Amino acid sequence: MGLLTLGNPLTWDETVPYLDYIKTHGISQFINLYNRLKNRQGDQLKWGDEIEYTIIQFDHQNKRVQVSLKAHELLKRLNAQEEVNSVVGMENKFLWRPEFAGYMIEGTPGVPYGGLLACFNLVEYNMMHRRSEVTKMLKSGESIMSISFPLLGTPDFTSPSTHITYNDENGAGRSIFFPDDAIYSGHPRFKNLVRNIRSRRGEKVNIQVPIFRDKNTPIPFREKLPVSDDEDANKHVKDDFIYMDHMGFGMGCCCLQVTFQACNIDEARYVYDQLTPITPILLALSASTPIFRGYLADVDSRWNIISSAVDDRTFEERGLTDTISPNRFRLEKSRYDSTDCYIDSSSIPYNDIPLCYDEKIYKQLLDGGIDEALSKHIAHMFVRDPLQVFRERIEQDDTKSTEHFETIQSSNWMNMRFKPPPPDALEIGWRVEFRPTEVQLTDFENAAYCCFVVLLTRVVISYRLNFLIPCSKVTENMEIAQKKDAVLNEKFFFRKKLFSCQSTSEASQICEKDDIYAKMTVNEIINGDGKEFTGLVPLLKQFLDSADIDVDTRCTISQYLSFIQKRASGEIHTLAHWMREYVDKHSDYKHDSVVPQSTIYDMLTCMDEISKGNKHCPKLLGCYRSKTDHLIPKAVRKFEESLVIQKALRKH
């Protein structure tokens, strides 16, 4: 979830004197890196996924389910095996890293996938064996699931038991629901981040999620808090909303992210912009989080919950004061939210959201040779303060390090992320990270979403498609995407004609017209409207028809695309819809928006069986099976590599 540096993290009060220093040097570091690598060319398309998993403890005798706080223990064993493999010269098939909570781990492929189409056939197999590797280390009753746990913050939701410390002045989060002992203990970053967000903000985070109103839900719905003497809770709790007060309610949820390497910086910026309007569509299409603190919510996604969970804006930045201090800004969004601007120069006419940034930093970037569009993006990120500074890492060589830049860049959690190459890893180029997708229950689903997005980047680059709409409409779409059953019931702003990108002057003229975009359903966007709009999947199939691709890979991709199409049409349910339906039909649920422990236990037991392949669920998954494998056949690899070489030679 960000930069993991060894050292002693500073408290917020200790960080304040270094804020300007870190920002100034962070910008210098980026300028130095940019000018050194801006002409880097010819990097191969590589990509990889990041899946966050929750470790679950089932008590089958008492029909209870909890999260298991054994991430640190598991990671010691998993990382030790990685080191052994490296020493003996064996390739690591997967890599494991810590996440925010003590019940979470993050898994990635051991090496990135390459640019061959046949690599799509490796993805699901790798995910399956990732899960299997951890499962072998678990005890009876434990399971690893790619879900966000629906009982976070309920009494005794962890195993072993932990206790809330809301009245402990030295506590990190001081939550009345989420114990600090549920935070990952193996690195000081995580608790310090919780503490510094609360300290900078001036109060605990305030997360408000609208309750789903069922037929027996009280009017008004009013929570009974577990304590009566918490000032923030008494101030913020309100009727008809689920209240939460800790970073763990957001960062303790799991997600799915995909990172791509572009051939150069220009392609990376272009792909960043073109995928930005796609992010709300994938958020709606992957909806999987309808239950928070054991209550049915009126949203299907974790997005705004995480946004509020890390919202470090001060009272004046949130507009709650009459005046604002010099060199401070009114900030409309949390540092976890949708992007406010496109970053390629040709996209400037679509940047209709007013950006706040420090003129001094903006000038520093321009003077350093950075163009207007990218300078504004970086300067806008740098209105945020660094939340994590390590005492031993304050003084750095700006020509060799980008740590001060990354400490701010990596804590701007947006739906897309533009990632410069690391200064100390020559094999890594300019990258783009696609961040909105909700994690799915099964490896098939997660592989399908990853391959869909990666294939879409291929088509965008090959056909020079243009998905751009005004950036403010993407922000609106991100809000729409979180609504209950948005994939079925909502319409999104989307570009009507996906013609090639035009020059900046042409784009400016087009942007003055209102007819470049229309409101469409997810089904229309994915499958086409049967009239003028082709649809994304038909475009992908058109691309595949013109590509040389082996039979097994084509079969696998076809299964994934058909699955995406049916989920977009509603023929196959999102996980959020499936969970709601399960709860609604459960005998212990009283239709009052409160989901009992027994219902959650039965539902997660069923979900666990589905995720392991022991139970078939056509409503959620359809009847698909890929031909995923652990390697690319030599003949296929040789043939595809020859095509890549021929294409590269034609370019030159």
How are the elements arranged and paired?
Layout: H1 12-15, H2 19-37, E1 46-59, E2 64-68, H3 71-88, E3 94-98, E4 104-109, H4 123-135, E5 142-145, E6 158-159, H5 189-201, E7 207-210, H6 231-236, E8 241-244, H7 248-251, E9 256-261, H8 265-275, H9 279-285, E10 291-292, E11 295-296, H10 303-309, E12 336-337, H11 359-367, H12 372-381, H13 403-409, E13 413-414, E14 416-419, E15 431-434, H14 443-463, H15 471-481, H16 486-489, E16 492-495, H17 504-511, E17 517-520, H18 522-527, H19 536-545, H20 551-569, H21 575-585, H22 597-611, H23 618-621, H24 634-651
Parallel strand pairs: 2-6, 12-13
Antiparallel strand pairs: 1-2, 1-4, 1-5, 1-9, 3-4, 7-8, 9-15, 10-11, 14-15, 16-17
Strand content: 5-15%
* Average of pLDDT: 95
Please tally the β strands and state the result: 17
> Percentage of helical residues?
25-40%
Assembly classification: single chain
Radius of gyration: 24 Å
CATH topology: Creatine Kinase, Chain A, domain 2
Low-confidence stretches: none
Tell me the overall shape.
globular
The computed structural class is alpha+beta
Tell me the domain tally.
1
Individual helix count: 24
User: In the CATH classification, which architecture applies?
Assistant: 2-Layer Sandwich
InterPro entries: GCS, Gln_synth/guanido_kin_cat_dom
Pfam families: GCS
EC number: 6.3.2.2
Organism: Strongyloides ratti
Explain this structure to me?
The protein has 652 residues and is an alpha+beta fold. The protein has one domain (1-158, 252-500, 515-651): 2-Layer Sandwich (Creatine Kinase, Chain A, domain 2), CATH 3.30.590. Helix content is 39%, strand content 11%. A hairpin with a 5-residue loop joins strand 3 (94-98) and strand 4. The model has no long low-confidence stretch (mean pLDDT 95). One of its GO terms (biological process) is glutathione biosynthetic process. It catalyses: L-cysteine + L-glutamate + ATP = gamma-L-glutamyl-L-cysteine + ADP + phosphate + H(+). It comes from Strongyloides ratti (Parasitic roundworm).
